[in-house]
Design goal:
By secondary structure, this protein is of the alpha/beta class. Helices cover about 55% and strands about 10% of the residues. The chain contains 15 helices and seven strands. β1 and β2 form a beta hairpin.
C-alpha cells in the first residue's frame, strides 16, 4: 500500500518511523489498527510529508538523529515517542525489513505502559557529545600507554604500574638501555610518547570545557553537593536524563544504570544474580568510581546521612559489592536531588543553622 487517499489518512492514529541514514520508512495505523499509510521518503522530505498528515502519535526507535526528528515533529504538532530498540523487537512480524520495522515501531508506540526515552534538548546533546569525545580520547590515551609498555616488555624492560611511573622513567630507560633498544624502536616509542602528550592536552581542553559548563548549570551544582560527585558525573547525568522526569523514583534510575541485581524469578521463587549492567555503562562506571573514592576515606563516613548504613554494610559485604551498593545509593540520591531541586543533606544544614 504505497499510495493512500486523503480520506483514509483522516483517521490516522499512529505512525511508525524507521529512521535511516538517507531514507525513512513510514507505516501508519488508524484507530482500528488497520494499515492506512505505507510510504518511503527521503530525509529532506520529512517536514513536507508530515505537514500533510493529521496530527497523531509518532513512534521511532532510539537511534542517531532520533532526538532531532522528535523535536522537529513536536514543533509541527505531533506527539513523538522515542522507544528503546529492544522494546520494538517483540512486535516485528515476518522477516526483518524496513517496512516491518516501521510497523513494529507503530504498534509499540500504542502501548500505554511503555517507557519511552526522554527527548533531549540541543544543549543536552552538545554536553553528551563532549563526554563521548572525552571518553574516546581517554581510551586512546590508555591504549597508547599500554602499547609503550608492550614494546618495552618485548625488549625485556618492565615498568611498575601507573601512568605517572612510566612517564617519569621513560626517558631514563631509553637513555640507560640504549644498547638493548634499536634506534628504530627508540624513535617509535618517542613518537608514541608525543601522541600521549597530545592526547593529554586534548583531554585537558575537553575536561575544562565540561567544568565550565558545570559552573553555569544550576542542576550540576546541586548534584555536586553529593559526596563523590564532581563535574564529570553531574554534567554526564544532566546530559543523559535532564531533570530525571523520565523516572518515577530513584530506584528506576538506578535500574536504568544497571546497578540492580539481575532477576530470574519463576514459580514464586526469587532468584537474584549479579548487577544487570543495563542502560548507560558510562554513567554506571562513573558512579562506581565515585563509590570507591568514598570507601577510601572511612573517616568521612560519619559526616553523611548514609554514614551509619555504610559502616554497617562494610562489616558484612566484600569491598567490590559494597562499592556497587553505594553507587546504587548515590544514584538514587542524585535523582532525588534533580527532581526536588535541593542539595544533599539539606535537612542537616537547616538543623545546624537553627
Amino acid at each position: 500500500m504505497t499510495n493512500t487517499h486523503n480520506e483514509d489518512l483522516a483517521g490516522l492514529a499512529t505512525v511508525g518511523v524507521d529512521i535511516g541514514k538517507d531514507v525513512f520508512h513510514l507505516v501508519g495505523f488508524d484507530a482500528g489498527g488497520a494499515v492506512v499509510l505505507r510510504k518511503k521518503i527521503k530525509r529532506l522530505a520529512l517536514v513536507p510529508t508530515f505537514e500533510a498528515l493529521p496530527r497523531c502519535v509518532v513512534g521511532m526507535e532510539a537511534c542517531l538523529s532520533a532526538h532531532f526528528v522528535s523535536r522537529t515533529l513536536r514543533k509541527l504538532g505531533f506527539e513523538p515517542r522515542i522507544i528503546p530498540a529492544k522494546y520494538t523487537k517483540p512486535f516485528v512480524k515476518g522477516q526483518k525489513n524496513d517496512y516491518n520495522d516501521a510497523e513494529a515501531i507503530a504498534e509499540a508506540a500504542l502501548r500505554p505502559n511503555l517507557r519511552c526515552v526522554a527527548e533531549k534538548t540541543q544543549d543536552q546533546l552538545d554536553l553528551q557529545a563532549l563526554h563521548r569525545v572525552r571518553s574516546r580520547l581517554v581510551s586512546r590515551r590508555t591504549a597508547t600507554i599500554n602499547q609503550i609498555r608492550a614494546f618495552l616488555i618485548e625488549q625485556g624492560i618492565t615498568v611498575r604500574t601507573g601512568a605517572s611511573a612510566l612517564r617519569k622513567s621513560l626517558f631514563a630507560i631509553l637513555q640507560n638501555r640504549e644498547d638493548e633498544l634499536s634506534p628504530r624502536m627508540v624513535d617509535i616509542i618517542i613518537g608514541l610518547y608525543e601522541d600521549w602528550l597530545w592526547l593529554d592536552q586534548r583531554v585537558a581542553v575537553v575536561t575544562a570545557e565540561i567544568e565550565t559548563i558545570c559552573k553555569r548549570e544550576a542542576n550540576c551544582q546541586l548534584l555536586m553537593s553529593v559526596p563523590g560527585i564532581g563535574p564529570l558525573i553531574s554534567t554526564g547525568m544532566v546530559a543523559a536524563v535532564g531533570t530525571g522526569e523520565a523516572f518515577d523514583r530513584g530506584r528506576d534510575f538506578a535500574a536504568w544504570l544497571g546497578l540492580v541485581p539481575r532477576q530470574y524469578s519463576t514459580g514464586g521463587r526469587t532468584i537474584l544474580g549479579g548487577i544487570s549492567k543495563r542502560g548507560s555503562s558510562y554513567l554506571r562506571t562513573l558512579f562506581v568510581q565515585a563509590a570507591h573514592i568514598i570507601l577510601m576515606r572511612p573517616h568521612n563516613w560519619s559526616k553523611f546521612s548514609f554514614g551509619s548504613w555504610l559502616e554497617a554494610a562494610s562489616k558484612r559485604m566484600h569491598k567490590n559489592k559494597l562499592a556497587v551498593a553505594l553507587a546504587n545509593k548515590l544514584a538514587r540520591i542524585a535523582w532525588s536531588i534533580l527532581r526536588n531541586g535541593r542539595t544533599f543533606d539539606t535537612h542537616r544544614i537547616e538543623a545546624s543553622a537553627m
